[in-house]
Amino acid sequence: MYKKFQYFVIGLLILCGIIFSNLFLQWCQNGLSVDLAMNFAFSWHTEKFFLACLVLLVLFIFFASLAGSLIAGASLYTLFITGIGLATYMKMEFRQEPVYPDDLNMITQLGFFKEVLGTGPFVVICIIMIAVIALFLYQLFRSFFLTKNKQMARLIMLALSFFGLVYISHFNEESNLLRRAYNRTALWIPYSQEMNYYNTGFVGGFLYNLRVEAMQEPSHYSEEAIDEITEKYQPQETSTEESEEPNIVYVMSESFSNPEHLQGLSITGNPLKEYKDIAQQSYSGKMLSQNYGGGTANIEFEALTSFSMELLNPQMTSPYTMLVPKMDRLPSLVSLSKERGYDTTAIHPYDTSMYKRQDVYSVLGFNQFLDQDSMDYTQTIENNPYISDEAAYQQVLDLLQKDSSPQFVHLVTMQTHMPYEGKYDNVDYQVTGEENNRNIENYLQDIDYSGQALQDFTEKLEDLPERTLVVFWGDHLPGIYSDYLQEQNSTKDLHQTEFLMFDSEDGLPHEEEEVTSPFYFAPSLFEQAGLETTPFYELLLDLEDILPAFESRMYVDGDRQWHEELNLSKKQQEIYNDYRLIQYDILQGEQYSLQNGFFN
After folding, report:
1. Which label site among 134, 197, 431, 527 has the fewest CB atoms less than 10 Å from its CB?
2. Residue that is last in its domain, among 510, 533, 556
3. Both 200 and 346 in a single domain?
4. Are residues 329 and 402 in the same domain?
5. Are residues 347 and 393 in the same domain?
Protein backbone atom coordinates (compact mmCIF):
# COMPACT_ATOMS: atom_id res chain seq x y z
CA MET A 1 0.00 0.00 0.00
CA TYR A 2 2.82 2.38 0.89
CA LYS A 3 4.57 1.60 -2.40
CA LYS A 4 1.45 2.46 -4.38
CA PHE A 5 1.06 5.72 -2.51
CA GLN A 6 4.73 6.49 -3.10
CA TYR A 7 4.35 5.88 -6.85
CA PHE A 8 1.20 8.03 -6.86
CA VAL A 9 3.03 10.94 -5.22
CA ILE A 10 6.01 10.62 -7.57
CA GLY A 11 3.69 10.52 -10.58
CA LEU A 12 1.78 13.55 -9.30
CA LEU A 13 5.02 15.49 -8.77
CA ILE A 14 6.20 14.63 -12.27
CA LEU A 15 2.86 15.73 -13.75
CA CYS A 16 2.96 19.02 -11.83
CA GLY A 17 6.56 19.54 -12.92
CA ILE A 18 5.63 19.00 -16.57
CA ILE A 19 2.73 21.46 -16.37
CA PHE A 20 4.87 24.02 -14.56
CA SER A 21 7.69 23.68 -17.11
CA ASN A 22 5.23 24.24 -19.95
CA LEU A 23 3.87 27.31 -18.18
CA PHE A 24 7.44 28.52 -17.75
CA LEU A 25 8.04 28.29 -21.51
CA GLN A 26 4.83 30.24 -22.16
CA TRP A 27 5.82 32.82 -19.52
CA CYS A 28 9.19 33.37 -21.17
CA GLN A 29 7.67 33.55 -24.64
CA ASN A 30 5.09 36.11 -23.52
CA GLY A 31 7.53 38.62 -22.07
CA LEU A 32 7.28 37.25 -18.48
CA SER A 33 3.53 37.89 -18.36
CA VAL A 34 1.85 35.52 -15.90
CA ASP A 35 -1.63 36.48 -17.14
CA LEU A 36 -0.85 35.63 -20.77
CA ALA A 37 0.74 32.32 -19.80
CA MET A 38 -2.18 31.29 -17.57
CA ASN A 39 -4.80 32.37 -20.09
CA PHE A 40 -3.07 30.47 -22.85
CA ALA A 41 -2.94 27.30 -20.75
CA PHE A 42 -6.32 27.29 -19.06
CA SER A 43 -8.56 29.57 -21.09
CA TRP A 44 -7.61 30.21 -24.71
CA HIS A 45 -5.63 27.17 -25.90
CA THR A 46 -6.04 24.46 -23.27
CA GLU A 47 -6.05 21.53 -25.69
CA LYS A 48 -2.80 22.64 -27.34
CA PHE A 49 -1.25 23.31 -23.93
CA PHE A 50 -1.83 19.75 -22.76
CA LEU A 51 -0.67 18.30 -26.08
CA ALA A 52 2.55 20.19 -25.41
CA CYS A 53 2.65 18.70 -21.91
CA LEU A 54 2.48 15.25 -23.49
CA VAL A 55 5.51 16.05 -25.64
CA LEU A 56 7.42 17.36 -22.62
CA LEU A 57 6.49 14.24 -20.64
CA VAL A 58 8.02 12.03 -23.34
CA LEU A 59 11.16 14.16 -23.21
CA PHE A 60 11.32 13.89 -19.41
CA ILE A 61 10.90 10.10 -19.52
CA PHE A 62 13.74 9.88 -22.04
CA PHE A 63 16.11 11.87 -19.81
CA ALA A 64 15.12 9.96 -16.68
CA SER A 65 15.32 6.49 -18.24
CA LEU A 66 18.62 7.35 -19.95
CA ALA A 67 20.15 8.34 -16.62
CA GLY A 68 18.42 5.54 -14.73
CA SER A 69 17.45 8.11 -12.10
CA LEU A 70 14.44 10.37 -11.63
CA ILE A 71 16.54 12.97 -9.81
CA ALA A 72 19.24 13.11 -12.51
CA GLY A 73 16.65 13.08 -15.27
CA ALA A 74 14.67 15.85 -13.60
CA SER A 75 17.84 17.92 -13.16
CA LEU A 76 18.81 17.61 -16.82
CA TYR A 77 15.23 18.26 -17.94
CA THR A 78 15.02 21.36 -15.74
CA LEU A 79 18.34 22.67 -17.06
CA PHE A 80 17.21 22.12 -20.65
CA ILE A 81 13.80 23.78 -20.19
CA THR A 82 15.29 26.69 -18.25
CA GLY A 83 17.89 27.27 -20.94
CA ILE A 84 15.33 27.13 -23.74
CA GLY A 85 12.96 29.43 -21.85
CA LEU A 86 15.55 32.09 -21.05
CA ALA A 87 16.91 31.96 -24.60
CA THR A 88 13.37 32.48 -25.89
CA TYR A 89 12.85 35.48 -23.65
CA MET A 90 16.13 37.08 -24.74
CA LYS A 91 15.58 36.37 -28.42
CA MET A 92 12.05 37.80 -28.26
CA GLU A 93 13.40 40.90 -26.54
CA PHE A 94 16.15 41.54 -29.07
CA ARG A 95 14.72 40.15 -32.29
CA GLN A 96 10.97 39.58 -31.80
CA GLU A 97 11.61 35.99 -32.80
CA PRO A 98 11.19 32.77 -30.80
CA VAL A 99 13.78 30.03 -30.52
CA TYR A 100 13.77 27.61 -33.45
CA PRO A 101 14.97 23.99 -33.38
CA ASP A 102 18.02 24.88 -35.42
CA ASP A 103 19.02 27.50 -32.83
CA LEU A 104 20.08 24.58 -30.62
CA ASN A 105 23.21 24.40 -32.78
CA MET A 106 24.31 27.61 -31.05
CA ILE A 107 24.78 25.79 -27.74
CA THR A 108 28.49 25.35 -28.46
CA GLN A 109 29.06 29.09 -29.04
CA LEU A 110 30.28 29.77 -25.49
CA GLY A 111 32.14 32.93 -26.46
CA PHE A 112 29.01 34.45 -27.93
CA PHE A 113 26.94 33.70 -24.81
CA LYS A 114 29.62 35.12 -22.55
CA GLU A 115 29.50 38.43 -24.44
CA VAL A 116 25.69 38.56 -24.41
CA LEU A 117 25.18 37.52 -20.78
CA GLY A 118 28.23 39.09 -19.17
CA THR A 119 31.05 37.25 -17.41
CA GLY A 120 29.35 36.86 -14.00
CA PRO A 121 26.04 35.28 -15.14
CA PHE A 122 27.90 33.21 -17.72
CA VAL A 123 30.22 31.69 -15.08
CA VAL A 124 27.27 30.90 -12.79
CA ILE A 125 25.39 29.18 -15.62
CA CYS A 126 28.49 27.18 -16.56
CA ILE A 127 28.92 25.98 -12.96
CA ILE A 128 25.27 24.87 -12.83
CA MET A 129 25.59 23.08 -16.17
CA ILE A 130 28.75 21.27 -15.07
CA ALA A 131 27.09 20.20 -11.81
CA VAL A 132 23.97 18.86 -13.57
CA ILE A 133 25.98 17.03 -16.21
CA ALA A 134 28.22 15.54 -13.52
CA LEU A 135 25.16 14.32 -11.62
CA PHE A 136 23.73 12.87 -14.82
CA LEU A 137 26.95 11.01 -15.66
CA TYR A 138 27.26 9.72 -12.08
CA GLN A 139 23.71 8.36 -12.14
CA LEU A 140 24.27 6.93 -15.61
CA PHE A 141 27.25 4.99 -14.24
CA ARG A 142 25.24 3.78 -11.23
CA SER A 143 22.37 2.68 -13.50
CA PHE A 144 24.44 -0.23 -14.77
CA PHE A 145 24.18 -1.78 -11.29
CA LEU A 146 20.38 -1.68 -11.07
CA THR A 147 18.53 -4.92 -10.43
CA LYS A 148 17.47 -6.97 -13.44
CA ASN A 149 13.80 -5.97 -13.16
CA LYS A 150 14.61 -2.27 -12.80
CA GLN A 151 17.08 -2.49 -15.67
CA MET A 152 14.43 -4.10 -17.86
CA ALA A 153 11.83 -1.45 -16.94
CA ARG A 154 14.35 1.30 -17.58
CA LEU A 155 15.30 -0.05 -21.02
CA ILE A 156 11.64 -0.42 -22.01
CA MET A 157 10.90 3.20 -21.02
CA LEU A 158 14.07 4.38 -22.78
CA ALA A 159 13.10 2.61 -26.00
CA LEU A 160 9.49 3.82 -25.88
CA SER A 161 10.48 7.44 -25.16
CA PHE A 162 13.22 7.37 -27.82
CA PHE A 163 10.87 6.14 -30.52
CA GLY A 164 8.28 8.58 -29.22
CA LEU A 165 10.68 11.48 -29.75
CA VAL A 166 11.57 10.17 -33.23
CA TYR A 167 7.87 10.04 -34.10
CA ILE A 168 7.34 13.55 -32.71
CA SER A 169 10.26 14.81 -34.82
CA HIS A 170 8.22 13.90 -37.93
CA PHE A 171 5.59 16.40 -36.84
CA ASN A 172 5.28 17.99 -40.29
CA GLU A 173 4.22 14.78 -42.02
CA GLU A 174 0.52 14.75 -42.89
CA SER A 175 -0.04 11.35 -41.29
CA ASN A 176 1.52 12.33 -37.95
CA LEU A 177 -1.11 11.84 -35.23
CA LEU A 178 0.28 14.59 -33.01
CA ARG A 179 0.11 17.06 -35.91
CA ARG A 180 -3.46 15.96 -36.59
CA ALA A 181 -4.34 16.53 -32.95
CA TYR A 182 -2.87 20.03 -33.13
CA ASN A 183 -4.72 20.70 -36.39
CA ARG A 184 -8.05 20.31 -34.60
CA THR A 185 -7.64 23.74 -33.00
CA ALA A 186 -4.35 25.20 -34.22
CA LEU A 187 -4.24 28.26 -36.46
CA TRP A 188 -0.84 28.07 -38.16
CA ILE A 189 0.50 31.42 -39.38
CA PRO A 190 3.46 30.66 -41.69
CA TYR A 191 4.25 34.28 -42.54
CA SER A 192 4.75 35.24 -38.87
CA GLN A 193 6.60 32.81 -36.67
CA GLU A 194 6.07 35.12 -33.71
CA MET A 195 2.29 34.84 -34.07
CA ASN A 196 2.62 31.16 -34.91
CA TYR A 197 4.22 30.51 -31.52
CA TYR A 198 1.71 32.75 -29.75
CA ASN A 199 -1.26 30.89 -31.27
CA THR A 200 0.00 27.35 -30.84
CA GLY A 201 2.28 27.67 -27.83
CA PHE A 202 6.04 27.39 -27.63
CA VAL A 203 6.09 23.61 -28.09
CA GLY A 204 3.64 23.70 -30.99
CA GLY A 205 5.58 26.43 -32.76
CA PHE A 206 8.86 24.63 -32.09
CA LEU A 207 7.53 21.38 -33.57
CA TYR A 208 6.18 23.24 -36.61
CA ASN A 209 9.78 24.20 -37.46
CA LEU A 210 11.14 20.65 -37.40
CA ARG A 211 12.19 18.67 -40.48
CA VAL A 212 10.98 20.63 -43.48
CA GLU A 213 11.84 20.82 -47.16
CA ALA A 214 13.30 24.06 -48.47
CA MET A 215 10.43 24.78 -50.86
CA GLN A 216 7.16 23.35 -52.06
CA GLU A 217 7.41 22.05 -55.61
CA PRO A 218 5.93 24.60 -58.04
CA SER A 219 3.43 23.37 -60.61
CA HIS A 220 4.84 22.55 -64.05
CA TYR A 221 8.33 21.89 -62.70
CA SER A 222 10.24 19.75 -65.21
CA GLU A 223 13.49 19.65 -67.13
CA GLU A 224 11.68 21.02 -70.17
CA ALA A 225 10.35 23.98 -68.19
CA ILE A 226 13.85 24.81 -66.94
CA ASP A 227 15.25 24.57 -70.48
CA GLU A 228 12.60 27.02 -71.70
CA ILE A 229 13.55 29.51 -68.97
CA THR A 230 17.21 29.17 -69.93
CA GLU A 231 16.48 30.08 -73.54
CA LYS A 232 14.25 32.97 -72.54
CA TYR A 233 16.81 34.84 -70.44
CA GLN A 234 19.99 34.59 -72.50
CA PRO A 235 22.00 37.83 -72.03
CA GLN A 236 22.49 40.15 -74.98
CA GLU A 237 25.93 40.40 -76.53
CA THR A 238 27.90 43.25 -74.94
CA SER A 239 30.78 45.10 -76.53
CA THR A 240 33.22 45.84 -73.71
CA GLU A 241 36.67 47.14 -74.45
CA GLU A 242 38.03 46.24 -71.04
CA SER A 243 38.82 42.51 -70.83
CA GLU A 244 40.19 42.41 -67.28
CA GLU A 245 37.83 41.69 -64.41
CA PRO A 246 37.68 44.28 -61.60
CA ASN A 247 38.10 43.33 -57.97
CA ILE A 248 34.77 42.87 -56.19
CA VAL A 249 34.44 43.43 -52.44
CA TYR A 250 31.25 42.64 -50.53
CA VAL A 251 30.96 44.23 -47.08
CA MET A 252 28.06 43.12 -44.89
CA SER A 253 28.22 45.56 -41.99
CA GLU A 254 26.74 44.25 -38.75
CA SER A 255 23.59 46.21 -37.74
CA PHE A 256 24.57 49.25 -39.82
CA SER A 257 21.50 51.46 -40.23
CA ASN A 258 20.34 55.07 -39.99
CA PRO A 259 18.52 55.78 -36.68
CA GLU A 260 17.52 59.23 -37.95
CA HIS A 261 14.75 57.60 -39.97
CA LEU A 262 12.97 56.29 -36.88
CA GLN A 263 10.00 58.18 -35.48
CA GLY A 264 10.15 59.08 -31.78
CA LEU A 265 13.95 59.14 -31.62
CA SER A 266 15.97 62.34 -31.38
CA ILE A 267 19.77 62.35 -31.64
CA THR A 268 22.44 65.03 -31.66
CA GLY A 269 25.12 65.10 -34.34
CA ASN A 270 25.47 63.17 -37.58
CA PRO A 271 26.93 59.69 -36.99
CA LEU A 272 26.56 58.75 -40.67
CA LYS A 273 28.35 61.81 -42.08
CA GLU A 274 31.24 59.91 -43.69
CA TYR A 275 28.92 57.20 -44.96
CA LYS A 276 26.62 59.79 -46.56
CA ASP A 277 29.56 61.50 -48.21
CA ILE A 278 30.31 58.25 -50.05
CA ALA A 279 26.65 57.38 -50.70
CA GLN A 280 25.96 60.72 -52.37
CA GLN A 281 28.71 60.00 -54.90
CA SER A 282 27.64 56.44 -55.66
CA TYR A 283 24.70 54.14 -56.37
CA SER A 284 22.95 53.93 -52.99
CA GLY A 285 19.71 53.73 -51.06
CA LYS A 286 17.78 51.42 -48.75
CA MET A 287 17.97 47.66 -48.48
CA LEU A 288 14.96 45.64 -47.34
CA SER A 289 16.07 43.29 -44.57
CA GLN A 290 14.20 40.10 -43.77
CA ASN A 291 14.49 40.55 -40.01
CA TYR A 292 14.64 43.13 -37.27
CA GLY A 293 17.46 42.76 -34.73
CA GLY A 294 19.03 39.65 -36.24
CA GLY A 295 19.08 37.15 -39.09
CA THR A 296 22.55 38.03 -40.36
CA ALA A 297 23.17 34.67 -42.03
CA ASN A 298 19.88 34.82 -43.93
CA ILE A 299 20.74 38.19 -45.43
CA GLU A 300 24.19 36.85 -46.31
CA PHE A 301 22.58 33.81 -47.97
CA GLU A 302 20.44 36.10 -50.14
CA ALA A 303 23.32 38.40 -51.06
CA LEU A 304 25.72 35.62 -52.12
CA THR A 305 23.28 33.24 -53.84
CA SER A 306 20.68 35.72 -55.18
CA PHE A 307 17.97 33.39 -53.86
CA SER A 308 15.13 34.89 -51.84
CA MET A 309 14.08 33.79 -48.36
CA GLU A 310 10.53 34.85 -49.26
CA LEU A 311 10.18 31.85 -51.55
CA LEU A 312 11.33 29.31 -48.96
CA ASN A 313 9.04 27.41 -46.65
CA PRO A 314 8.53 29.53 -43.52
CA GLN A 315 9.98 26.75 -41.38
CA MET A 316 13.26 27.01 -43.33
CA THR A 317 14.40 29.66 -40.86
CA SER A 318 18.16 29.34 -41.47
CA PRO A 319 19.40 27.95 -44.81
CA TYR A 320 23.02 28.26 -43.62
CA THR A 321 22.48 25.65 -40.93
CA MET A 322 19.50 23.66 -42.22
CA LEU A 323 20.13 23.43 -45.96
CA VAL A 324 23.46 24.54 -47.45
CA PRO A 325 25.84 22.17 -45.55
CA LYS A 326 23.85 19.23 -46.96
CA MET A 327 24.35 20.37 -50.56
CA ASP A 328 27.18 19.40 -52.92
CA ARG A 329 26.82 22.37 -55.27
CA LEU A 330 25.19 25.75 -54.83
CA PRO A 331 25.68 28.36 -57.57
CA SER A 332 26.51 31.79 -56.22
CA LEU A 333 28.50 34.92 -56.91
CA VAL A 334 31.41 33.05 -55.34
CA SER A 335 31.27 30.13 -57.80
CA LEU A 336 30.72 32.50 -60.74
CA SER A 337 33.76 34.55 -59.72
CA LYS A 338 35.90 31.40 -59.48
CA GLU A 339 34.81 30.33 -62.98
CA ARG A 340 35.95 33.73 -64.27
CA GLY A 341 39.41 33.41 -62.77
CA TYR A 342 38.95 35.19 -59.43
CA ASP A 343 40.54 34.26 -56.14
CA THR A 344 37.73 34.10 -53.58
CA THR A 345 38.17 34.93 -49.90
CA ALA A 346 35.70 35.17 -47.03
CA ILE A 347 36.63 37.21 -43.96
CA HIS A 348 34.69 37.13 -40.69
CA PRO A 349 36.52 38.54 -37.64
CA TYR A 350 34.86 36.08 -35.27
CA ASP A 351 34.36 32.35 -34.69
CA THR A 352 34.31 30.16 -37.83
CA SER A 353 31.57 27.88 -36.51
CA MET A 354 28.89 30.58 -36.25
CA TYR A 355 26.04 29.55 -38.58
CA LYS A 356 28.26 26.69 -39.84
CA ARG A 357 30.13 29.19 -42.00
CA GLN A 358 33.12 26.88 -42.36
CA ASP A 359 30.93 24.29 -44.11
CA VAL A 360 28.80 26.85 -45.94
CA TYR A 361 31.75 28.73 -47.39
CA SER A 362 33.21 25.45 -48.63
CA VAL A 363 29.98 24.61 -50.49
CA LEU A 364 29.80 28.13 -51.94
CA GLY A 365 33.35 27.77 -53.26
CA PHE A 366 35.57 30.16 -51.32
CA ASN A 367 39.28 29.50 -51.73
CA GLN A 368 40.02 30.60 -48.17
CA PHE A 369 38.24 31.72 -45.01
CA LEU A 370 39.95 34.11 -42.62
CA ASP A 371 38.56 34.40 -39.11
CA GLN A 372 39.67 36.07 -35.87
CA ASP A 373 42.40 33.46 -35.38
CA SER A 374 43.86 33.64 -38.89
CA MET A 375 43.63 37.38 -39.57
CA ASP A 376 46.77 39.50 -39.49
CA TYR A 377 44.96 42.59 -38.19
CA THR A 378 42.91 42.20 -35.01
CA GLN A 379 42.90 45.65 -33.41
CA THR A 380 39.88 46.79 -31.41
CA ILE A 381 38.60 50.22 -30.32
CA GLU A 382 38.57 51.12 -26.60
CA ASN A 383 36.40 48.59 -24.70
CA ASN A 384 34.82 47.06 -27.80
CA PRO A 385 35.59 43.31 -27.68
CA TYR A 386 35.18 42.88 -31.44
CA ILE A 387 37.80 43.41 -34.13
CA SER A 388 37.35 46.86 -35.64
CA ASP A 389 36.16 47.60 -39.16
CA GLU A 390 39.41 49.47 -39.74
CA ALA A 391 41.42 46.32 -39.02
CA ALA A 392 39.12 44.20 -41.19
CA TYR A 393 39.46 46.61 -44.11
CA GLN A 394 43.25 46.52 -43.77
CA GLN A 395 43.03 42.75 -44.16
CA VAL A 396 41.06 43.24 -47.38
CA LEU A 397 43.56 45.81 -48.66
CA ASP A 398 46.41 43.39 -48.06
CA LEU A 399 44.71 40.80 -50.26
CA LEU A 400 44.08 43.31 -53.03
CA GLN A 401 47.64 44.64 -52.93
CA LYS A 402 49.50 41.34 -52.75
CA ASP A 403 47.76 39.41 -55.51
CA SER A 404 47.64 40.52 -59.13
CA SER A 405 44.76 38.19 -60.08
CA PRO A 406 41.22 39.56 -59.69
CA GLN A 407 39.83 39.17 -56.19
CA PHE A 408 36.35 38.53 -54.84
CA VAL A 409 36.41 39.29 -51.11
CA HIS A 410 33.39 38.89 -48.86
CA LEU A 411 33.73 40.61 -45.48
CA VAL A 412 31.24 40.18 -42.62
CA THR A 413 32.10 42.76 -39.95
CA MET A 414 31.71 42.46 -36.17
CA GLN A 415 32.62 45.88 -34.70
CA THR A 416 28.99 47.04 -34.49
CA HIS A 417 27.62 43.82 -32.97
CA MET A 418 25.68 43.96 -29.72
CA PRO A 419 25.98 44.38 -26.75
CA TYR A 420 26.64 48.11 -27.03
CA GLU A 421 26.65 49.57 -23.53
CA GLY A 422 30.14 50.17 -22.15
CA LYS A 423 31.94 49.87 -25.47
CA TYR A 424 33.25 53.44 -25.44
CA ASP A 425 34.29 55.80 -22.65
CA ASN A 426 33.81 58.88 -24.80
CA VAL A 427 30.60 59.07 -26.80
CA ASP A 428 29.95 62.02 -29.11
CA TYR A 429 26.18 61.57 -29.33
CA GLN A 430 23.15 62.07 -27.13
CA VAL A 431 19.75 60.46 -27.50
CA THR A 432 16.34 61.56 -26.25
CA GLY A 433 12.95 59.90 -26.58
CA GLU A 434 14.12 56.40 -25.70
CA GLU A 435 14.62 54.43 -22.50
CA ASN A 436 17.71 52.62 -23.80
CA ASN A 437 19.66 55.85 -24.29
CA ARG A 438 23.11 54.61 -23.28
CA ASN A 439 22.84 51.55 -25.50
CA ILE A 440 21.79 53.65 -28.48
CA GLU A 441 24.45 56.30 -27.87
CA ASN A 442 27.18 53.64 -27.92
CA TYR A 443 25.60 52.21 -31.07
CA LEU A 444 25.75 55.65 -32.70
CA GLN A 445 29.44 55.87 -31.84
CA ASP A 446 29.88 52.43 -33.34
CA ILE A 447 28.36 53.36 -36.71
CA ASP A 448 30.30 56.64 -36.66
CA TYR A 449 33.57 54.68 -36.42
CA SER A 450 32.26 52.28 -39.06
CA GLY A 451 31.53 55.11 -41.48
CA GLN A 452 34.97 56.62 -40.92
CA ALA A 453 36.63 53.26 -41.60
CA LEU A 454 34.59 52.81 -44.79
CA GLN A 455 35.56 56.26 -46.06
CA ASP A 456 39.24 55.61 -45.38
CA PHE A 457 38.96 52.21 -47.10
CA THR A 458 37.36 53.61 -50.27
CA GLU A 459 39.98 56.38 -50.48
CA LYS A 460 42.76 53.79 -50.37
CA LEU A 461 41.03 51.74 -53.07
CA GLU A 462 41.30 54.71 -55.42
CA ASP A 463 45.09 54.45 -55.16
CA LEU A 464 45.14 50.83 -56.35
CA PRO A 465 46.03 50.22 -60.01
CA GLU A 466 43.12 47.79 -60.45
CA ARG A 467 39.49 48.82 -60.60
CA THR A 468 37.65 47.75 -57.45
CA LEU A 469 33.88 47.54 -56.95
CA VAL A 470 32.43 47.57 -53.44
CA VAL A 471 28.94 46.59 -52.30
CA PHE A 472 28.36 47.75 -48.72
CA TRP A 473 25.19 47.13 -46.72
CA GLY A 474 23.83 46.79 -43.20
CA ASP A 475 22.23 43.41 -42.52
CA HIS A 476 19.49 44.56 -40.09
CA LEU A 477 18.60 47.14 -37.47
CA PRO A 478 20.04 46.53 -33.99
CA GLY A 479 17.58 44.96 -31.56
CA ILE A 480 17.95 47.75 -28.99
CA TYR A 481 14.84 49.84 -29.51
CA SER A 482 12.01 49.66 -26.96
CA ASP A 483 8.58 48.24 -27.75
CA TYR A 484 7.18 51.76 -27.45
CA LEU A 485 9.52 53.12 -30.11
CA GLN A 486 8.88 50.15 -32.40
CA GLU A 487 5.14 50.79 -32.17
CA GLN A 488 5.70 54.33 -33.43
CA ASN A 489 7.34 53.03 -36.61
CA SER A 490 5.98 50.99 -39.49
CA THR A 491 7.20 47.52 -40.38
CA LYS A 492 9.09 48.86 -43.39
CA ASP A 493 10.93 51.41 -41.21
CA LEU A 494 12.16 48.61 -38.96
CA HIS A 495 13.32 46.50 -41.91
CA GLN A 496 15.30 49.00 -43.98
CA THR A 497 19.04 49.49 -43.70
CA GLU A 498 21.63 51.36 -45.80
CA PHE A 499 23.40 50.11 -48.92
CA LEU A 500 25.76 51.56 -51.50
CA MET A 501 27.81 50.44 -54.50
CA PHE A 502 31.20 52.11 -54.91
CA ASP A 503 33.54 52.09 -57.91
CA SER A 504 37.17 53.11 -57.39
CA GLU A 505 37.15 54.48 -60.96
CA ASP A 506 33.80 56.25 -60.48
CA GLY A 507 32.16 54.23 -63.22
CA LEU A 508 28.78 53.68 -61.56
CA PRO A 509 25.78 56.01 -61.93
CA HIS A 510 25.21 58.39 -59.01
CA GLU A 511 21.71 57.44 -57.95
CA GLU A 512 20.35 57.78 -54.42
CA GLU A 513 17.22 56.60 -52.60
CA GLU A 514 17.08 53.28 -54.46
CA VAL A 515 15.19 50.46 -52.70
CA THR A 516 16.45 46.93 -53.19
CA SER A 517 16.76 43.45 -51.72
CA PRO A 518 20.11 41.74 -51.11
CA PHE A 519 19.47 39.04 -53.72
CA TYR A 520 19.58 41.78 -56.37
CA PHE A 521 23.06 43.02 -55.40
CA ALA A 522 25.07 40.87 -57.83
CA PRO A 523 22.95 41.35 -60.98
CA SER A 524 22.54 45.05 -60.23
CA LEU A 525 26.29 45.51 -59.72
CA PHE A 526 27.09 43.66 -62.95
CA GLU A 527 24.60 45.78 -64.88
CA GLN A 528 25.76 49.09 -63.36
CA ALA A 529 29.44 48.26 -63.89
CA GLY A 530 29.05 46.91 -67.42
CA LEU A 531 30.18 43.37 -66.53
CA GLU A 532 29.08 40.27 -68.39
CA THR A 533 25.89 38.91 -66.85
CA THR A 534 24.40 35.38 -66.84
CA PRO A 535 20.93 34.08 -67.79
CA PHE A 536 20.14 33.91 -64.06
CA TYR A 537 21.12 37.53 -63.55
CA GLU A 538 19.07 38.56 -66.60
CA LEU A 539 16.06 36.89 -64.97
CA LEU A 540 16.73 38.77 -61.74
CA LEU A 541 17.07 42.10 -63.56
CA ASP A 542 13.67 41.55 -65.19
CA LEU A 543 12.22 40.69 -61.81
CA GLU A 544 13.82 43.76 -60.24
CA ASP A 545 12.02 45.98 -62.76
CA ILE A 546 8.63 44.84 -61.45
CA LEU A 547 9.57 44.07 -57.82
CA PRO A 548 12.55 46.23 -56.76
CA ALA A 549 12.45 44.73 -53.27
CA PHE A 550 10.45 42.07 -51.47
CA GLU A 551 10.36 39.92 -48.39
CA SER A 552 7.47 38.09 -46.78
CA ARG A 553 4.51 40.48 -46.29
CA MET A 554 6.60 43.37 -47.68
CA TYR A 555 6.48 43.96 -51.44
CA VAL A 556 7.71 47.09 -53.25
CA ASP A 557 6.30 47.51 -56.76
CA GLY A 558 7.79 49.34 -59.73
CA ASP A 559 6.18 52.61 -58.57
CA ARG A 560 7.85 52.34 -55.11
CA GLN A 561 4.52 51.53 -53.46
CA TRP A 562 4.53 49.11 -50.51
CA HIS A 563 2.09 46.18 -50.26
CA GLU A 564 1.48 43.33 -47.81
CA GLU A 565 0.34 40.97 -50.57
CA LEU A 566 1.88 40.13 -53.92
CA ASN A 567 -0.16 41.75 -56.70
CA LEU A 568 1.23 41.15 -60.21
CA SER A 569 -0.10 41.22 -63.74
CA LYS A 570 -0.11 38.02 -65.79
CA LYS A 571 3.20 38.87 -67.50
CA GLN A 572 4.79 39.94 -64.21
CA GLN A 573 3.59 36.75 -62.54
CA GLU A 574 5.27 34.74 -65.28
CA ILE A 575 8.66 36.31 -64.45
CA TYR A 576 8.12 35.72 -60.73
CA ASN A 577 7.16 32.08 -61.41
CA ASP A 578 10.27 31.59 -63.59
CA TYR A 579 12.44 32.79 -60.69
CA ARG A 580 10.59 30.49 -58.31
CA LEU A 581 11.10 27.50 -60.62
CA ILE A 582 14.84 28.16 -60.87
CA GLN A 583 15.20 28.58 -57.11
CA TYR A 584 13.29 25.34 -56.49
CA ASP A 585 15.37 23.55 -59.11
CA ILE A 586 18.60 24.41 -57.29
CA LEU A 587 17.57 24.20 -53.64
CA GLN A 588 15.12 21.29 -53.71
CA GLY A 589 14.90 19.94 -57.26
CA GLU A 590 17.15 18.14 -59.72
CA GLN A 591 19.46 21.09 -60.52
CA TYR A 592 18.74 20.92 -64.25
CA SER A 593 19.72 24.59 -64.59
CA LEU A 594 23.26 23.80 -63.41
CA GLN A 595 23.66 21.45 -66.33
CA ASN A 596 22.50 23.87 -69.03
CA GLY A 597 24.73 26.81 -68.08
CA PHE A 598 22.06 29.05 -66.59
CA PHE A 599 24.47 30.37 -63.96
CA ASN A 600 27.54 30.77 -66.22
Report:
1. 134
2. 533
3. no
4. yes
5. yes
Does any domain span residue 227?
Answer: no
Taking the C-alpha atoms of residue 102 and residue 361, their distance in angstroms, rounded to an integer, is 19
For 447, the domain range is 245-533
Query: Which residue in 216, 319, 339, 302 sits closest to 594, CA to CA?
Result: 339
Strand partners, 555: 550, 563
| DSSP conformational letter for 491 | T
Q: Which H or E element spans position 225?
A: helix 223-232
Q: How far apart are CA 545 and CA 540, in angstroms?
A: 9
Structure confidence by residue, pLDDT tens digits, 64-97: 999 988 999 999 999 999 999 999 998 888 777 7
Do 536 and 331 form a contact (C-beta atoms < 8 A)?
yes
Q: At what angle do helices 46-67 and 148-169 cross, to 10 degrees?
A: 140
Q: What is the DSSP string of 545-577?
A: HH-SEEETTEEE-TTS-EESS----HHHHHHHH
- Is 576 part of any domain? no
Average predicted confidence (pLDDT) for the chain: 91
Q: How confident is the model at residue 239 (pLDDT cuts 50, 70, 90)?
A: very low
Note whether 48 and 201 are within 8 A (CB): yes
- 190 and 290 part of one domain: no
Going through 368-522 in order, the beta strands assigned E by DSSP cover: 368-371, 407-412, 431-432, 468-474, 496-503, 514-516
Q: Are 333 and 522 in contact (CB under 8 A)?
A: yes
Rounded CA-CA distance 524/347 in Å is 23
Nearest to 507 by CA among 322, 307, 242, 263: 242
Q: Are 301 and 529 in contact (CB under 8 A)?
A: no
- How many structural domains does the chain have? 2
Task: Let me know whether 195 and 270 are in one domain.
Answer: no
Distance CA 583, CA 246 (A): 28
Maximum separation of any 2 CA atoms in the chain, in Å:
95
Residue 398 counted as domain residue: yes
CATH code of the domain in which 298 resides = 3.40.720.10
Give the pTM: 0.81
**Whether residue 202 is found in the same domain as residue 317:** no
From the CA atom positions of the chain, what is the Rg in Å?
26
One-character DSSP codes across 7-19: HHHHHHHHHHHHH
Check whether 190 has a pLDDT greater than 70.
no
Question: Which comes out higher in pLDDT, residue 283 or 209?
Answer: 283
Closest Cα partner for 59 from 168, 171, 139?
A: 168
